[in-house]
Amino acid sequence: MSKSPANYRPETRLVHSGTLRSQYGETSEALFLTQGYVYSSAEECEARFKGEDPGFIYSRYSNPTIAMFERRMIELEGAEAARSAATGMAAVTTAILAPLKAGDHVVASRALFGSCLYVIQDLLPRYGIETTLVDGANLDEWQRAVKPNTKTFFLESPTNPTLDVLDIPSIAEIAHKGGARLVVDNVFATPIWQSPLALGADVVVYSATKHIDGQGRCLGGIILSSEAFIAEHIHNFMRQTGPSISPFNAWVLLKGLETLGVRVRAQTDTAARIADVLASHPKIARLIYPGREDHPQAALVRKQMRGGSTLVGFEVKGGKAAAFRVLNELKLAKISNNLGDAKSLVTHPATTTHQRLKPEDRAALGISEGFIRFSAGLEHADDLIEDLTAALEKA
Ligand SMILES: Cc1ncc(COP(=O)(O)O)c(C=O)c1O
Prior knowledge:
- It contains 15 helices and 12 strands.
- The protein is of the alpha/beta class.
- Residues 87-89, 92, 113, 115-116, 156, 160, 185, 187, 207, 209, 219, 221 line the site of pyridoxal-5'-phosphate.
- Pyridoxal-5'-phosphate (PLP) binds at residues 87-89, 92, 113, 115-116, 156, 160, 185, 187, 207, 209, 219, 221.
- Pathway: Amino-acid biosynthesis; L-methionine biosynthesis via de novo pathway; L-homocysteine from O-succinyl-L-homoserine: step 1/1.
């Protein structure tokens, strides 16, 4: 009996899941760069619109290339259904907003990517949705925040940029006891190292712009969950409001998935080597790397993640001036606000991704002026270490 792709190991699913071959039997997945579809009869067209015929209608709703990308992600993540979106933020905003109405309440971890924080703190309240921010690592704060109208919990783990790890099973339990769902942004962990649905989360979102593309080419996002959640809350919202992904971008991401496992493993090995070198470096005041025993939540990392991270966080002694000197001295790693790329990228969160925050809020999150986020790429680890240590000499 032949196995269904969903029963193979993740590496095999990354290459084969979801492939739909056309009548030409192409090896590589076809790019269906089409807005719409034609019907062989008015009756077939009517049946398609009534949902009695499963074919495609319009690429704002679905498209064969997009369907391949979604199916491959579904089988990788162990979800029942998915809808992809134009960007990671389109996926985050839709996953949070689509199921809610005025009068509902959302609880979220305070340590969020700046745009996710904007959605929670600024956008939702404008539409009558109450929000509460908590210290994500403090389970009592999640518990105390629950109200009768709480519908959604939202978190990132590891967090951006300080790589704190939050207890997904315990937070899911608190959410479910309170009648709420847990939405996890799994960008920093990647589907290779963490499966939030298996840990108790109800919805997973990705910025596919990051590791899934991983080669700096295009933006994309995806929401994965149960059949019921996608059908009831997401499908119609996306179909009518239109934050859909382009088939071209879905094709790039689909091909990106084929090498995701290899890339994430290599980038994680490199990040771990960089972390080990920085841990004892005299110019470094603080090092954070999920995967090292000195990570504040090392036991939790072992429990809920299968590997460390492609990212390393560190604080350079001497504040912003020293951090800027390091960034400007680096020859190989490039200054950027992106992450998860084949090229190593360095970010100064205080002046970029998190500059919108008040200084005291940044300080509370551990984003000091000397803090740098290093996203390890696919270069040789020794070249990156030589580049970093030479730059640190100048700090
Ligand atoms: C944790 C996290 N979530 C969401 C996003 C948004 O993704 P995108 O840039 O694809 O909209 C980003 C990065 O930009 C991110 O780092």
